[in-house]
């Protein structure tokens, strides 16, 4: 297991380097003078030249790349042109907001998706199977923004059960430490706010989690159906184990590997920011952050945003690989 | 011999497929006495595996269904038991070994976990005791270093070792009946002999009755006390090993025995029964073997012969016997 982990970590290195090269080249491929972009069109030639010197833009490109890489390793992502705040500092609350929403959405998607898939496979061709597969078909085909709006209309406007926008009750906010409000409100011992944070999370995570849930349900079902006919499931039954045990222990563990892949990919995609959901629910996440940077041509922010999302994707993939190994000894011992 | 512990009566297991209803097991009656080894022989698709799976009610459903008959295990009709009661029998009083040791063990659990599960389910042993019992079982089936093998995964073991693990699992609760469904088919010849030895030894030492499903007459000769020959979902002949090998009465059994290559004979081509197993359907009439039989008569296509007892404990299902019987009487 240890050697497997080391191997996986080692393989990540070229991926990460490749990522930085791509992101670095993107910014250099953009036409126009960065100094002019930063200072504006009316800046004097002299002030532009000073800025170029200061930013190291007059150095050869490879030197610039290594400076960039060195800064990255120090955790320096540069500065936002718009706000003049260091990006590493500025992006944290947005990332935390996205992480909180992603985790909630994926928890919803995995719990309902996996269970619906299992029961559908177990009771194949039953009413439950037909209905859950129909629901999941509708789930994958439904536009998120429409679902989000419908949720707000029903649960906020008509029923008044859940708040329609934001992350918590702003009248009496909790001090942000981690920016994960679930944790912050617990740290502050503010159980009243914890409840409002949970309530704020429900609608956006359902909207965001519906498509992954539908995909996971279908994947789990087909994977389970395959495994349920296998010889070792028959052996487990022949041992006198209960059907529940056979399904949830012997079959599920084997069926879970392809499902794990889907969960990983979906989590990665959600972490990249869900602009639609974040916009509808006024969720201050990384998707909206980058979107705003794009609209105001804040290149350093765009660059860092892309880099962080790509990095998170790589990390999620690493985690999925490690989970494979945890589930399947044949991977672990290879 | 004593009262049989397993008595299958007129068992009918049908499969409901797109091509219609297939009577895979069509009125099979068998019995196994305590401590006895019964061989069930026949070629692929004759219904021998389906019969054995029916005993544990493990027929995949849909498409399969037991549509008739009775399976009595020690006076209880298995087919009438509740699923809960049935679970108490599976792996406990009756256990089963399957053909493919490569795929019959769960790849994601250690050998020990898989054996322990059966022990915990039926014996309610604590973790430590269950582990000790598992080591004992592994040792009993001849696995070297059981204390370390117990923590290994199936993919780390050879085919023969995996089959030993399957056997250890099957006998872990001291079953009265062991159903072995082609336990050696997937193994090398030398390993086959070891596994057969092991099953024979368990039968002799513990008095476990064995129902040995096989297509290999060599296995039957080596292992069994009595034999039932199946063809196309029906038992065509039943008798002691001696009856079947020395005096096979049914033309199918005779054909099977002739197909076995002999050491002391130089033959260029091996004998084989011409033709194919018929495609089963519910409207079949007459003898299932008629198309391939050397002694076929017009009546064979019209009338399904009864399984008749021709000498003590030796029964066969063929119209020839009735003709002969009449001739004898005349």
UniProtKB/TrEMBL annotation, chain A:
Superkingdom of origin: Bacteria
Gene Ontology biological process terms from the UniProt entry: transmembrane transport
Assigned GO CC terms: plasma membrane
Cell location: Cell membrane
TM segment ranges: 9-30, 94-118, 130-149, 201-220, 255-281, 301-327
Pfam families for the chain: BPD_transp_1 (PF00528), BPD_transp_1_N (PF19300)
InterPro entries cross-referenced by the UniProt entry: BPD_transp_1_N, MetI-like, MetI-like_sf
CDD domains xref list: TM_PBP2
Topology term for the membrane: Multi-pass membrane protein
The UniProt record lists the keyword Transmembrane: yes
Alphabetic keyword roster: Cell membrane, Membrane, Transmembrane, Transmembrane helix, Transport
Chief location: membrane
Annotated ABC transmembrane type-1 domain residues: 95-324
Family the UniProt entry places it in: Belongs to the binding-protein-dependent transport system permease family.
Name of the protein in its database record: Peptide ABC transporter permease
Species, as recorded: Paenibacillus campinasensis
From TrEMBL, chain B:
Protein name: ATP-binding cassette domain-containing protein
Family under the similarity heading: Belongs to the ABC transporter superfamily.
A single BP term in Gene Ontology: peptide transport
Protein localization: Cell membrane
Taxonomic lineage of the native organism: Bacteria, Bacillati, Bacillota, Bacilli, Bacillales
Source taxon at top rank: Bacteria
Keyword ATP-binding assigned: yes
Alphabetic keyword roster: ATP-binding, Cell membrane, Membrane, Nucleotide-binding, Transport
Domain ABC transporter residue range list: 6-257
A single MF term (Gene Ontology): ATP binding
Entry-linked PROSITE patterns: ABC_TRANSPORTER_1, ABC_TRANSPORTER_2
Keyword set includes Nucleotide-binding: yes
Membrane topology field: Peripheral membrane protein
Cellular component terms per the entry's GO annotation: plasma membrane
SMART domains, per the entry: AAA
């Amino acid at each position: 297991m240890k050697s497997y982990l080391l191997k996986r970590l080692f393989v990540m290195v070229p991926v990460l380097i490749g990522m930085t090269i791509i992101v670095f080249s993107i910014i250099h491929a953009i036409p126009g003078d960065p100094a002019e972009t930063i200072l504006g069109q009316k800046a004097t030639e002299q002030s532009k030249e000073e800025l170029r010197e200061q930013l190291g833009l007059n150095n050869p490109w490879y030197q610039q790349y290594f400076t960039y890489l060195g800064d990255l390793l120090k955790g320096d992502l540069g500065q936002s042109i718009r706000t003049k705040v260091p990006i590493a500092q500025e992006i944290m609350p947005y990332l935390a907001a996205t992480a909180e929403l992603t985790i909630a959405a994926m928890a919803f998607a995995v719990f309902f998706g996996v269970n619906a898939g299992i029961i559908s496979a177990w009771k194949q061709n039953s009413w439950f199977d037909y209905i859950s597969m129909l629901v999941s078909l509708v789930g994958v085909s439904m536009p998120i923004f429409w679902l989000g709006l419908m949720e707000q209309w029903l649960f906020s406007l008509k029923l008044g059960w859940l708040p329609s926008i934001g992350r918590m009750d702003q009248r009496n906010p909790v001090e942000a430490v981690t920016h994960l409000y679930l944790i912050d409100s617990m740290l502050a011992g503010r159980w009243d706010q914890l409840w409002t944070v949970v309530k704020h999370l429900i609608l956006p995570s359902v909207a965001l989690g519906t498509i992954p849930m539908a995909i996971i349900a279908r994947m789990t079902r087909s994977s389970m159906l395959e495994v349920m006919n296998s010889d070792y499931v028959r052996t487990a039954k022949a041992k006198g184990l209960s059907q529940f045990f056979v399904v949830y222990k012997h079959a599920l563990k084997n069926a879970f590997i392809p499902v794990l892949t889907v969960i990983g990919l979906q989590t990665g995609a959600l972490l990249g920011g869900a602009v639609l959901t974040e916009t509808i629910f006024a969720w201050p996440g990384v998707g909206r952050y980058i979107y705003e940077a794009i609209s105001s041509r804040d290149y350093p922010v765009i660059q860092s945003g892309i880099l962080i999302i790509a990095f998170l994707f790589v990390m999620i993939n690493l985690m999925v690989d490690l989970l494979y190994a945890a589930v399947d000894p044949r991977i672990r011992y290879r | 011999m004593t009262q049989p512990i397993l008595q299958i009566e007129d068992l009918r297991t049908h499969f409901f497929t797109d091509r219609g209803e297939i009577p895979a097991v069509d009125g099979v009656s068998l019995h196994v006495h305590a401590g006895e080894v019964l061989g069930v022989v026949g070629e692929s698709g004759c219904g021998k595996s389906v019969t054995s799976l029916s005993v544990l009610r493990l027929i995949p459903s849909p498409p399969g269904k037991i549509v008739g008959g009775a399976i009595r295990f020690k006076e209880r009709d298995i087919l009438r038991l509740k699923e809960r009661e049935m679970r108490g029998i599976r792996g406990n009083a009756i256990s089963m070994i399957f053909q493919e040791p490569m795929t019959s063990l769960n790849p994601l659990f250690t050998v020990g976990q898989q054996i322990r599960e059966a022990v915990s389910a039926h014996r309610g042993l604590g973790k430590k005791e269950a582990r000790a019992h598992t080591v004992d079982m592994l040792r009993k089936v001849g696995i070297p270093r059981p204390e370390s093998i117990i923590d290994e995964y199936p993919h780390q073991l050879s085919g023969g070792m995996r089959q030993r693990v399957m056997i250890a699992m099957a006998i872990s609760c001291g079953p009265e009946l062991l159903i072995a469904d082609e336990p050696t088919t997937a193994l090398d010849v030398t390993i086959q002999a070891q596994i057969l030895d092991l099953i024979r030894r368990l039968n002799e030492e513990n008095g476990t009755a064995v129902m040995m499903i096989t297509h290999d007459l060599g296995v039957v000769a080596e292992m069994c006390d009595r034999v039932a020959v199946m063809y196309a979902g029906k038992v065509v002949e039943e008798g002691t090993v001696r009856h079947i090998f020395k005096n096979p009465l049914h033309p199918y059994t005779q054909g099977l025995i002739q197909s076995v290559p002999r050491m002391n004979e130089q033959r260029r081509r091996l004998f084989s029964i011409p033709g194919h197993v018929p495609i089963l359907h519910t409207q079949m009439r007459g003898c299932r073997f008629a198309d391939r039989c050397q002694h076929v008569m017009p009546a064979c296509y019209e009338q399904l012969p009864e399984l008749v007892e021709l000498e003590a404990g030796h029964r066969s299902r063929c119209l020839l016997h009735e003709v002969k019987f009449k001739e004898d009487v005349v």
